[in-house]
Amino acid sequence: MGSKNRRKFVSWSRLKKSFVYASNGIVYTLKHEQNFRVHLTVGAVIFILAQVLRIPLEKQAILAVVIGGVLALELINTAIEHVVDLMIDTYDERAKIIKDTAAGAVFIFSATAVIVGILILLPYIIALFSR
Ligand SMILES: Nc1ncnc2c1ncn2[C@@H]1O[C@H](COP(=O)(O)OP(=O)(O)OP(=O)(O)O)[C@@H](O)[C@H]1O
After folding, report:
1. What is the pTM of this model?
2. I need a labelling partner for 18 at 20 to 30 A (CA). Which of 26, 60, 123, 131 fits?
3. 59 in ligand 1 pocket by Cβ < 6 Å?
4. ipTM value > 0.95
5. How far apart are CA 78 and CA 54, in angstroms?
6. What would the mean pLDDT of 84-105 be, rounded to a whole number?
7. 28 C-alpha vs ligand 1 centroid, how far in Å?
8. Structural domain that includes position 24
């Protein structure tokens, strides 16, 4: 008892470890999940396009939130898939429901991100071609 209480308010070594663990999770997902690679690539293209089109910073912030949200949801979906696989290695209707609903959450947020991206970028693309 007490060892936790004696911990520093902010420990840089613990922060560094947390960053390394989180990076490992991102690198794992990057290597093994095609959807994550697709979303990351689309997100990077949108970010570059926003710079080229000189989109205002507050709109870029909205794009950053939705792109980051999709990527974060992909990581959670991957974690859920692994928890299910850890619990059961045979076909199970409940496993299917868990995985399918988690995938559905990613899909809904991705579709939302696409709509937000179109709403923000399209007027600038139209203005570029109607000069
Ligand atoms: N144990 C299981 N029991 C029943 N259905 C399963 C099971 N494991 C996977 N499935 C079905 O297969 C689908 C794909 O699951 P899998 O674990 O292969 O994910 P994935 O191919 O990596 O998916 P994603 O491409 O979304 O990352 C699930 O959405 C589910 O419908």
Report:
1. 0.90
2. 60
3. no
4. no
5. 34
6. 98
7. 18
8. 12-129
